[in-house]
Amino acid sequence: MIDIEVKLPEKTYHIHLAKGLRAQLGTSISRVWHPRQIALISDDHVAPLYMAELHAQLLAAGFTVLDIVVPAGETSKSLTTLEQIITRLAAAGMTRQDGVIALGGGVVGDLAGLVASLYMRGIALIQIPTSLTAQVDASVGGKTAVNLQTVKNIIGTFKQPDLVLIDPDFLTTLSQRDLVEGYAEVIKTSILADTTFFALTGKITSPADILGHAEELIERSIRYKATVVMQDEHEGGLRKVLNFGHTIGHAVELEAHGALRHGEAVAIGMVTISRVFVRHQQMPVALFEALLKRIEQIGLPTSTDLVAAPDFMAHLQNDKKNQQGTLNLIGVAAVGQPFIYPVPFVKLTDFLGDI
Ligand SMILES: NC(=O)c1ccc[n+]([C@@H]2O[C@H](COP(=O)([O-])OP(=O)(O)OC[C@H]3O[C@@H](n4cnc5c(N)ncnc54)[C@H](O)[C@@H]3O)[C@@H](O)[C@H]2O)c1
Ligand SMILES: O=C(O)C(=O)C[C@@H](O)[C@H](O)[C@H](O)COP(=O)(O)O
Ligand SMILES: [Zn+2]
Fold first, then answer.
1. Helix, strand or coil for residue 100?
2. How far, in Å, is the centroid of ligand 3 from the Cα of 264?
């Protein structure tokens, strides 16, 4: 088993990564939590596959379990769903000594994380990510969120889990589209991280390759993310680089109204902003081409007409990296060398040029 420690000023937690870990989730959880009531939150794609098994393991380990299932998909990251879940926790008499487990993709992780950070001003949380996006990114680092219809992730907290349990075997039931969209965050992390990781993503050309290298891709992604989060938990500076591709990506994701997955939008965002930085001589053409190759060879989208949507520029102004009239764009000068590039709103249209 791979054990990665995330050491933060206020708490330290572990990420366990191993194929087959699924069979021992109850035991792993009972090592960090004493017996308590657990709200086990999942979605209606993941629950029929994995919830009963985990529920039984938790009962066997001495826990009481309240199953909560939300509709699969981004629309569950809403204040309405948040309120429905919190109402269930209150009705079940859950207390500050109880806990929340997120069993699912990034949607469930972000939503259940927010529930855990708000209920009674905060109760314990464990993340069990089942999608690639969640295993390589969302389950680590503590960002939680729900959306407004017009703004992505605008209501959220930083809520670090007590434990993250990752079993790559969960990925075998993921649809090909969801596997590939999650891989966009892997490409993102590989260009931010180092040349060894970036060379590895250069060799991945099919969903079968992703599954074949899942453990290494997950380990490299979360080791890099944990290193960044340990230096800047609350995104005062360095952590902003994890948002590479997301300023444009989130705007495109919103404009697509569910037609694009998060990772697909991030892929478009990475290509679009990189093209801008090439034009401004902040990114070498060869690096841009290497990034584009990785995105194209796995079948992720690279462009969309949605950047011309009427509200596109307005979405950019809601980006959480913005400071006093300035947008902070993320670029990459060389593999392992991301940068933060401030652009005043008033100069943004000129700076972006023809995207
Ligand atoms: N907090 C963070 O740091 C962070 C990082 C990256 C993404 N995110 C957020 O995560 C969300 C995207 O996450 P996602 O791509 O996992 O989307 P998702 O949670 O909607 O999962 C994608 C689909 O896969 C299904 N699924 C998940 N695991 C499965 C499995 N093992 N077998 C079969 N089906 C399975 C889900 O039911 C869903 O239909 C976005 O809202 C994004 O903003 C957050
Ligand atoms: O953990 C981070 O920090 C990230 O930026 C990871 C992103 O992949 C993720 O999509 C995150 O939810 C984006 O956060 P946001 O604050 O830009 O909405
Ligand atoms: Zn993301």
1. strand
2. 10
